[in-house]
Amino acid sequence: MAVHTLDITKEHCPMTFVKTKLKLAQIPEGDVLEVLLTEGEPLNNVPRSATEQGYKVLSIDHVEGNVHKVLIQK
Amino acid sequence: MADKKKLSLIAFSGEFDKLTAVFTLATGAAAVGYEVNIFFTFWGLDAIKKKKGRSFVGGNWLTKLFGFMMGGLSATPTSRFNFFGIGPKIFRSLMKKNNVATLEELVDAANALGVNLYACEMAMHVLGLEQKDFIHEVKDTLGVATFLEISEGGRTLFI
After folding, report:
1. Which of A16, B31, B49, B67 has the largest CB neighbor count within 10 A?
2. Bridge-partner residues for B98, per DSSP?
3. Considering only alpha carbons, which residue of chain A is nearest residue B101?
4. Which residues in chain A are closer than 8 Å to B104, comparing Cβ atoms?
């Protein structure tokens, strides 16, 4: 099981979701995607939409400032 | 999923800002798991032309002239602050500067996400356009009845 990383802290709507979705589509089944994102819309909705689409949100951790790290398993 | 969420957009406008709204909604919805359909009609057809700049696409001299005046995606004007064509350049540079996706990037993202693009048969006929004049991602040429069937059970917006 490999861990892939994606930093969307500099992105804005809708590319936050778009980049997460495209990255999740690329990685093999069972792998984990580590997403770095900011508070507000990305933190509220990236994990929620991943769950809705059948992915497993393993953890959400505060990194620093308004940056959080979300682990999503495909 | 049997009850997949669905968003269908009618892209009637050919302005840079309104098309940005179309593709922002389309990509955002597709990225959070919606099935997304965009039905391009009239001025909106400019967004899916193969030739992104100005070119004489059309059936006869009049529609060719219209085709040139309307242009493609990179020739779209803004609905306000167009300033004789400088407006879109200003907005594009503001978007780049603020790390917001440009219209072209949104169109690429829509295609990467598998957004379904359709062209309106009637408007194409009026403007002398054929499916070969559009980007290959355009799935089909439709009329109202088929669009209603495709959009059935989801949300529809007219932009």
Report:
1. B31
2. none
3. A15
4. none
Q: What is the mean pLDDT of chain B?
A: 94
Which element (helix H / strand E) includes B29? helix B16-31
Which of these, B123, B147, B108, lies nearest to B10 by C-alpha position?
B147
Residue A9: which CATH number?
3.30.110.40
A38: contact with B, CB 8 A cutoff: no
pLDDT interval class at B3 (50, 70, 90): low
* CB-CB under 8 Å, B99 with A10: yes
CATH number at residue B150: 3.40.1260.10
How many Cα atoms are found within 13 Å in the side-chain-facing hemisphere of B99?
A: 8
Domain that residue B140 falls in: 6-158
CA gap B82, B155 in Å, rounded = 31
Is B1 a member of any domain? Answer: no
Give DSSP secondary structure letters for B82-113: -GGGHHHHHHHHHHHHTTPPPHHHHHHHHHHT
Give B77-124 pLDDT, tens digit per residue. Answer: 999 999 999 999 999 999 999 999 999 999 999 999 999 999 999 999
In this prediction the pTM is: 0.93
